[in-house]
Write a structure and sequence with these properties.
Distance between the termini: 48 Å
Strand content: under 5%
Number of strands: 2
Number of domains: 1
Number of helices: 6
Low-confidence stretches: 133-149
Oligomer: single chain
Radius of gyration: 17 Å
Mean pLDDT: 75
Helix content: 40-55%
C-alpha cells in the first residue's frame, strides 16, 4: 500500500513536499483544513514541522523565520550550503557554491555568512512559498527574492 507524503525532511524539520502533483490535487488545502480543525478543537498537537514553517503558517513574516540547514530536505543542496560552514574552500567547492547561487540569482561568493543565510533561506522558505502559494490569486510580495546582509 503506497503513501503520499505531504512533508519531507528530517523529524522536527519537516517542510511541505515540493510536488506539482500534490499542489494541483489540493491535498495541501485538505491538510490545512485538518490542521485548522485540530487546532480549533484542541485535538492532537502537530509535531515534526520545521519551526520556520510553523512561524510562516501562523502569519509570521517569512523574512523573520529562523531557518537552519536541517530545514532543507534536499540533501544535495544542503551539502552545498554546508560547504560554506568551512573556512577554506577549494576552487571546485567555490564553483559548486557559485553555481547554486547563480541558479537562484544570488550574488557570488564574497560574504560567506551572508550567502550561507541567504542560500538556506532560499532553499526552505522561498521555495516553500513559491511552490505552495503560486497558485493563489494574489501572489504575495514575498515571492521575490530580496535578501540583504
Amino acid at each position: 500500500m503506497g503513501r503520499t507524503l505531504l512533508f519531507e525532511g528530517e523529524p522536527d524539520h519537516l517542510v511541505p513536499a515540493a510536488s506539482e502533483a500534490l499542489i494541483e490535487s489540493n491535498l495541501f488545502r485538505v491538510a490545512g483544513r485538518m490542521l485548522g480543525h485540530t487546532f480549533l478543537h484542541d485535538g492532537p498537537h502537530v509535531t515534526g514541522l520545521s519551526p520556520a514553517v510553523i512561524h510562516v503558517l501562523f502569519n509570521g513574516d517569512p523574512e523573520m523565520a529562523t531557518v537552519v540547514t536541517e530545514d532543507c530536505p534536499d540533501l544535495h543542496i544542503r551539502s552545498i550550503i554546508e560547504l560554506l560552514e568551512h573556512e577554506d574552500l577549494t576552487p571546485e567547492q567555490k564553483d559548486t557554491v557559485s553555481d547554486l547561487s547563480m541558479s537562484w540569482d544570488l550574488p557570488e561568493l564574497t560574504q560567506v555568512q551572508c550567502l550561507l543565510k541567504t542560500l538556506t533561506h532560499c532553499a526552505v522558505v522561498d521555495f516553500f512559498f513559491f511552490h505552495l502559494l503560486k497558485s493563489n490569486c494574489s501572489a504575495p510580495s514575498v515571492l521575490t527574492v530580496q535578501h540583504s546582509c
